[in-house]
Write a structure and sequence with these properties.
The radius of gyration is 19 Å and the shape is globular. The longest helix is centred in the middle third of the chain and has 16 residues. Strand 2, helix 2 and strand 3 form a beta-alpha-beta unit. The protein folds into two domains: 172 residues, HUPs (Rossmann fold, 3-Layer(aba) Sandwich); 91 residues, Pantoate-beta-alanine ligase, C-terminal domain (Pantoate--beta-alanine Ligase, Chain: A,domain 2, 2-Layer Sandwich). It is of the alpha/beta class. 38% of the residues lie in helices and 20% in strands. Bound molecules: adenosine monophosphate. Adenosine monophosphate binds next to helix 2 and strand 5.
Length: 281
């Protein structure tokens, strides 16, 4: 695995690969890798000739009161895992490399960026789209792999790619869960034992929604109120949002008649967790 810390090194490694008509796949991550990340790497490995992974804890997507400085960093372990998965190129730039002094340009997907997590985390998606656009320019991938776990992020990136004509196929990969159903996340490492148990309420609320949906319920308001009842069983967990929306524009849906995203975010202690499920009538 070639490890590149500079943009020019990563760009030339990927250009060499493309010159031989090989399909390049990119998996953007913030490191502290788990099976969720590795599932994206495996999908890329199965579909591409050259697999590039980026590890960059992107400061511009963290709010001033968020966990940038304590975000888990395990670079050596991550490298070993990526080697084992047969990754070809690891792009791991410094903050200075990605954001030259005085950088004032941003990529913003207006409107969409203020929904779901974007509402709770102002500026978050502006940071995400800016860094992903930069990664696309450096790696020039044919395909890029993202987790359905971050459903709003996926919608925002798909829209950016569509609106700005990035020649990249966006591939969404299913949510990977722990044995008890908790969606894997680097932030799960923040949870103590009690919180880890309480965190299951997110998954329980989505299961309740799925159960009612399968029983024929189509009213978003009734699904939401049943899910909120589930949260009453864990008063220590603070619900941020529970929404029923269309998966592309992330607008609330009243009556479910097509493919619909049910997304939840909640604070377990100080840790903000997200999860979602897609309903298909
Ligand atoms: P992060 O390192 O949290 O920025 O995540 C990097 C990529 O991994 C994003 O596309 C995430 O959606 C994806 N990802 C994170 N957790 C999971 C999971 N549990 N299942 C599938 N994909 C995931």
């Amino acid at each position: 695995m070639k490890i590149c810390a500079s943009i020019s090194e990563a760009r030339s490694a990927c250009r060499d690969a493309r010159a031989n008509h090989r399909r390049v796949g990119l998996v953007p991550t913030m490191g502290a890798l788990h099976e969720g990340h590795l599932s994206l790497v495996r999908a890329a490995r199965a579909q591409c000739d050259v697999v590039a992974v980026s590890i960059f804890v992107n400061p511009t997507q963290f709010g001033p009161a968020e966990d940038l400085s304590k975000y888990p960093r395990q670079f050596e372990r991550d490298c070993r895992l990526l080697e084992q998965e047969g990754v070809d190129i690891l792009f791991a730039p410094s903050i200075e490399e990605m954001y030259p002094q005085g950088a004032i340009s941003w990529v913003v997907v207006e409107g969409l960026s203020e929904k779901l997590d974007g509402r709770s985390r102002p500026g978050h998606f502006r940071g995400v789209t800016t860094v992903v656009a930069k990664l696309f320019h450096v790696i020039e991938p044919d395909a890029a792999y993202f987790g359905q776990k971050d459903a709003a992020q996926l919608a925002v990136i798909r829209r950016m790619v569509r609106d700005l004509d990035f020649p990249v196929e966006i591939v969404a990969c299913p949510i990977v869960r722990e044995a008890d159903g908790l969606a894997m996340s680097s932030r799960n490492a923040y949870l103590n034992r009690e919180e880890r148990q309480r965190a299951l309420v997110l998954q329980r609320s989505l299961q309740e929604t799925q159960r009612q949906f399968q029983a024929g319920e189509r009213s978003a308001a009734r699904l939401i109120s049943a899910a909120k009842e589930v949260f009453l069983s864990e008063p220590q967990v603070r619900l941020d949002y529970f929404e029923v929306v269309d998966p592309e524009m992330l607008d609330p849906v009243e009556h479910i008649s097509g493919r619909t995203l049910v997304a939840v975010a909640a604070f377990v202690g100080t840790t903000r967790l997200i999860d979602n499920v897609v309903l298909e009538p």
